[in-house]
Design goal:
Number of strands: 0
Number of helices: 6
Distance between the termini: 55 Å
Structural class: mainly alpha
Order of helices and strands: HHHHHH
Number of domains: 1
Strand content: under 5%
């Protein structure tokens, strides 16, 4: 199996999951498909491939580590490393997109407001998350009017 195939398959899985997240229903079945069938499979692929890369089973593992810039450069210096890194981005951004969608649904944001933020998260993960955090803040404060509390903390 080639790295081009794995890269393309991961992209196809991620894009199908994003399409369902943005355009599909938000029922339990759709959430399960995106969570396990999208993010879960991407996470599994990432974990297995990363371990194989770091132990040297896959090409590109020579000198690979997370303790120096040279070690990280060694990881991304091969098709294997680039593919594993890309799957990391795909899985994490999809998970963040799922959280944004669920949070937006809980706060009553329409799908028309959600779609641009989700698309931004798809193409520029942390930027999409940052935009969502700014957009959601007024709704979060309305939902938790007790001043001085951070979301998730109780007195």
């Amino acid at each position: 199996m080639s790295w081009d195939f794995i890269f393309g398959a991961a992209n196809a899985l991620a894009l199908a999951s994003w399409a369902l997240l943005v355009l599909g229903p938000r029922g339990a079945l759709a959430r399960t498909v995106v969570f396990y069938g999208g993010a879960g499979i991407l996470c599994l692929a990432y974990g297995v491939l990363l371990i194989l890369l770091l132990v040297g089973v896959l090409d590109g593992g020579s000198g690979a580590n997370f303790t120096s810039i040279e070690g990280v450069r060694a990881i991304f210096g091969s098709d294997a490393g680039v593919t594993v890194g890309w799957i990391h981005y795909l899985a994490f951004d999809l998970f963040v997109g799922m959280w944004i969608a669920r949070d937006a649904d809980d706060k009553g944001f329409s799908r028309l407001w959600q779609a641009p933020v989700l698309l931004l998260t798809l193409v520029a993960g942390p930027l999409g998350l940052l935009v969502w955090l700014f957009i959601r803040e007024p709704a979060a404060r309305r939902a938790n009017p007790r001043k001085g509390l951070k979301p998730g903390f109780k007195r």
